[in-house]
Amino acid sequence: MLGWFIFEPITGILADRVRKKKLIGFSILFSTIVSLFYPLATSFSHFALLTFTRTSAMSLNAVSMKAMIAELLPSTEKGKTYGRYMAAVSMGGILGPVLGGILTTLAGYTTPFYISAGISCIGLAATLPLKHDGTNTRAIIGDITSNKGAKLITRTFLGILVIRGLYMINMVFRQDTLPIFLHENPRFGASETEIGVYMSITQFSSALSQISLGALTDRVGTRIMIASSLGLESLGYFTLTIATGVVPLYVLGALHGVCGASADLNMMIHLMKIMPQGKTGIVMGLYSESENVGGIIMSPIMGVIYDSMSPIFAVYIVSATLVADSALSALMTKKMLRKS
Predict the structure, then answer these.
(1) Domain C-terminal end among 143, 175, 198
(2) Which has the closest alpha carbon to 195: 169, 175, 213, 209?
(3) In terms of DSSP H, where are the helices of 73-129?
(4) Which of 43, 72, 78, 134 is most exposed by smallest CB count within 10 Å?
(5) How far apart are CA 234 and CA 255, in angstroms?
(6) φ, ψ dihedrals at 276, nearest 5°
(7) pTM higher than 0.85
(8) Residue 229, Cα to own-chain centre: how many angstroms?
(9) Where residue 316 falls among pLDDT bands split at 50, 70, 90?
């Protein structure tokens, strides 16, 4: 998290002043080189340093890519187009871990790192022919809060950052705490395999739903989609406190996948609608930083609540926070749409 936290906002500023294609290419190249050093690591400190270096390099890609996509999306059917892009990203996220697991079993722990580096080279080769580079030579750092051009730091923009930051409690709980809860709770007693199936169902439902979700967003708008997605995710977590067995768990996995995909997609589309022109880089950098801050704050809080209070209470906290975020998004996005 530290690499993202430090370099994503810096990358946001750079992305409005330097060719985004160059930043993406450098990020892929540097992270590829770092991947080749993983098999040479001999201690935990080596892995920590390599991971920090890798996420620092990847921040150049993440922010620049989001900014470039925001500039390339058509004025109509933004949701449908962005949904297709996110579906492709999600499929990569599904295939990558499966491929890594198979390669590790068949060829050992070092081979996947070399394969990963090779795949990154393919990505680099695909980046170089891009004609759009997203250059904005007139972007000036001092204009961020000035009256020159469109103002960035507004209540509208801060509102979406708060909504996104609060939403990270869902991401933290699902990735870090939920597997422990499902394994320890006697009503589920889920094995590692059953937890893996739940996670796979979540990923597949997320990937498969994004194209249709984007098209639906174009019809009903981001406000309804964000608020309803957060509300349904909250209901899903609350159901975990009364459900029993793995079958309801798998159904909830599908629900969480669709709702999570909807929330992610619609928050980003809404951000693209309200961002000022010429500042896509800094907007995406600050948006990513809200995720980093939310994750850094929520991770230890969830751990303390789970251990010192009770696992069930931790689920209630997540559910209640999502309800509050849903209400906040309904209010804030309404004001945003009026202003924009």
Answers:
(1) 143
(2) 175
(3) 78-107, 111-127
(4) 43
(5) 11
(6) -70, 150
(7) no
(8) 15
(9) very high
